Amino acid sequence: MLLDYFPQIKALILDMDGVLWRGKQPIGNLAEIFERIKSLGLKFTFATNNATGSVKQYVDKLRSFGVDVSPQQIINSPMAVAHYLKQLYPEGGAVYWIGETGLIEALEQAGFHYSEDGVVAVVAGLDRQFTYEKLRKASFLIQKGIPFIGTNPDKTFPSPEGLTPGAGSILAAIEAASGTPPQIMGKPYPHLFRLALQQMKTQPHETLVIGDRLDTDIIGGVNAGCKTALVLTGVTTRAEAEQFQPKPDWIANSLGELVGVNS
Ligand SMILES: [Mg+2]
Fold first, then answer.
1. Is 154 a catalytic residue?
2. From the CA of 61, how far away is ligand 1's center (Å)?
């Protein structure tokens, strides 16, 4: 198995879409794969840019595929935002936010509440109820000098009808209106991975980031100082991965192949 080539690895940070599943379809026997990962003594955390779903939804989905995880093993871009704001404002405070369940849940758990004035930050992610009025309010606050923080940069994501607008499209609208770019916490920026490293108490050089996208998972892993593995079960071909700079440390057909489970 490919993991034999890197004995220094003590922990994994895994992307989910395109690594564990495509939509509702699991990729390989996930129960067996994670039994193997546990038997190798590896810690693991799941890290996703997706800012809409709640942690419980991921825990339930993993459990439905026979993978038992605790909520602490799931990290999404809103949690990286909340962690960042909590460092600046340990007591919490008022935030103007544009987003869905995942974002609201993470900010409220960190002691922040929604407000339209007197806020410490404007935080935006994917919001499928986004309106001109929300854009206008965010723009006015940012023009007054309130920090503008984005969950994740993904401009679109695939759907049967075509490319659907993602968080990055909303951030682009707010940037156009306010004249200020967001500070983004999701991949490929390192905050999400740093939070995972902190929770697992592992060092970057002994942690392997596994994902299916070069521009987010692999660049993000490199930015955080981690080792990287690209799996070919998602959006990237082997030829694209071979040519990419920085090249992933490992390229595997699947997560199963990486850890030595052939199912
Ligand atoms: Mg993915």
1. no
2. 16
**149, 184, 219 - which closes a domain:** 184
Residue 179 Cα to ligand 1 midpoint, Å, equals 30
Closest CA to 77 of 152, 15, 168: 152
- The token duo for 128 is 């499928």
Q: Which of 15, 212, 217, 249 is catalytic?
A: 15
- Which single residue is written with the structure tokens 């799941």? 46
In this predicted model, what pLDDT tens digit does every residue of 77-119 receive, in sequence order?
999 999 999 999 999 999 999 999 999 999 999 999 999 999 9
- List pLDDT tens digits, range 165-178: 999 999 999 999 99
Among the listed residues 220, 216, 215, the one whose alpha carbon sits nearest the alpha carbon of residue 207:
220
Question: Do 178 and 206 sit in the same domain of this protein?
Answer: no
Is the residue at 39 inside a domain? Answer: yes
H or E stretch at 210: strand 207-211
Q: How many CB atoms lie within 10 A of CB 25?
A: 6
The reply to whether 84 and 164 lie within a common domain is: yes
Which residues, in sequence order, are bridge partners of residue 229?
210, 250
